[in-house]
Amino acid sequence: MILVTGASGQLGRLVIDSLLEKTAASNIVAGVRSPEKVADLAEKGVQVRQADYTDQDALVAAMQGVEKVLLVSSSEVGQRAAQHANVINAAKHAGVSLIAYTSILRADSSPLILAEEHVATEALLAESGVPHVLLRNGWYQKTTPWV
Questions:
Q1: Model's pTM, two decimal places?
Q2: Which one, 95, 107, 133, 140, has the greatest CB density within 10 A?
Q3: Structural contact between residues 105 and 71, judged by C-beta atoms closer than 8 angstroms
């Protein structure tokens, strides 16, 4: 099974829609703070589990039977590293075999203030011993037209 955290958000929804084209809904877990927000996913057969980044017990329960986790970065600036640590610890506790994390493009050299939390999360992933993939999205980068 694959757990997508932040499944009620824009990226989480897009990922689940894509997964539904490739695997059975019963193989997908939508991790959300408010399960009622994704009732439509449950109607499609996706398992919906409470997975609030601040609730360690809920995260551990949400990870049961899960093989892979997509950790969609928290939107709560200043709290991301601690929230992500909760997800990583729950995944480790549950024996998850892979965590994919939506980090930031060039996290280790980015001048953006929010990069610090992504660097901290990447370090937590490395320390956890859980195999992981860093998805370094460029959506925070200003684009420059070709000259």
A1: 0.89
A2: 107
A3: no
Q: Is residue 15 part of a domain?
A: yes
pLDDT tens for each residue of 56-79 = 999 999 999 999 999 998 888 778
Q: Which helix (H) or strand (E) holds 12?
A: helix 10-20
DSSP helix, strand, coil percent of the chain (3-state; round to 5)? 40, 20, 40
CA distance 91 to 99: 8
- Tokens 């991301």 found at: 80
Contact 130, 99 (CB under 8 A): yes
- Structure token pair of residue 63: 């990870």
Number of domains in the chain: 1
**pLDDT under 70: residue ranges of the chain:** 138-147
Does residue 145 form part of some domain? no
> Backbone phi, then psi, for 127, in 5-degree steps?
-70, -25
User: Residue 142 domain-assigned?
Assistant: no
